[in-house]
Amino acid sequence: MKPVKAVYAGTFDPVTNGHIDIIDRASQMFEVLYVTILDNMNKNKMFTLEERLDLLKEATKDYENVIVTSSNKLAVEYAREVGAKVLVRGLRATTDFEYELQMALANQHLADDIDMVFLMTRARHSFISSSTVKEIALHHHTVEDLAPGCVAEALKKKIG
Predict the structure, then answer these.
(1) What's the whole-model pTM score?
(2) Among residues 32, 21, 39, 43, which one has the least CA distance to residue 120?
(3) Best CATH choice for the domain 5-159 from the list 3.40.50.1820, 3.40.50.620, 1.10.260.40, 1.20.59.10
(4) Which of 28, 148, 157, 159 has its CA 20 to 30 A from that of 55?
């Protein structure tokens, strides 16, 4: 079996323990995993691109085969650029599946040589989203069980 590179792309505003779970498992499946922040213009972001890159790098520093990057391209275009043959996506619930199915079909249309791999989020992370983490933090509750420590600290500083 030949080595395969993969891309796990998202907004990561901020990175959560659910994301880290997917990164952990995908990093064991692929030779190189590019964790890539894509600029989604449809989302209101709390953290700047630089802040998100720093948080992702800190949260993934122990993974030797994970490369944290950013791109303003489509995920399939970025995957081609780095020689990746797989896009990794996490699924929490059936609502995620409907969105991810649309994205997978669009990606197949654009690049049928790049496959999608879906990893089910572990049950303990199934309710965690970046939006949920931000909402809980905005109401001055701890998010230390929901996000890496560096993110919990960054949220405290950001919210005040």
Answers:
(1) 0.94
(2) 21
(3) 3.40.50.620
(4) 28
